Amino acid sequence: MTQNQPIKALENSINDMVTVKLKDQRIFRGRLTRCDMIMNLTLADAEEIDEEQVKAKYGEVLIRGNNILWIQIPES
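The structure assignment produced for this chain is given below.
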């Protein structure tokens, strides 16, 4: 397993809907538009999710990689 596999998986998920959980337990869902080598992400049409309900809707959000607990991407 190479170190770049998670980054490659993210790059392959550009324009797909992803779910991101942050270290502060907030969950965001949106269309992945950008990612970089330290897993900073940009989501378009982002929504904050709380207990499976939409809590807030945002346009575009930037999520710093060091705040991410996990990322759920579509299966290939």
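Interim note for the steering committee: The mean pLDDT is 92. The first strand starts at residue 17 and ends at 22.
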